[in-house]
């Protein structure tokens, strides 16, 4: 007989027991917040190149590329964070440390510094 629970990925849903739906929904909201952040990073990176701003060309391009790369990486961090938190809730273990948060914060700070320097030159 086929497994009645066909949810994927199996390494997340194939272990433990169903957690309180509130935890699953909160985890999903966090995932969606990361996706919104990713879209904002992508839009910011594109806008830096598309809109004529008083920022030196190489600095603008560097910040734009950095924001776009962060926007591309964020959904991966979001999905991994969602899966790890969901698995932890299902197996009643402590939540894992966040993935990608420090890199995202550092990258946004770096992009801001690059834009600032490019604006001052």
Describe this structure in words.
- The model has no long low-confidence stretch (mean pLDDT 93).
- This protein starts with 9 loop residues before the first helix and ends with a helix.
- The protein is elongated.
- The chain is built from 4 helices and no strands.
- With 121 residues, the protein is mainly alpha-helical.
Any idea what the shape is? elongated
Distance from first to last alpha carbon: 69 Å
Structural class: mainly alpha
User: Biggest β-sheet: count, sense, barrel?
Assistant: none
- Given as residue ranges, the uncertain stretches (5+ residues, pLDDT < 50) are none
Spell the H/E element sequence: HHHH
Mean pLDDT: 93
Strand content: under 5%
What's the tally of helices? 4
Total number of β-strand segments? 0
- C-alpha-based Rg, rounded: 19 Å
Helix content: over 70%
Structural features:
single chain, 121 residues, mainly alpha, elongated
Topology:
Blueprint: H1 10-13, H2 21-50, H3 57-91, H4 101-120
Helix pairs in contact: 2-3, 3-4
Summarize this entry quickly.
The chain has 121 residues and is mostly helical. It contains 4 helices and no strands. It has helices spanning 10-13, 21-50, 57-91, 101-120.
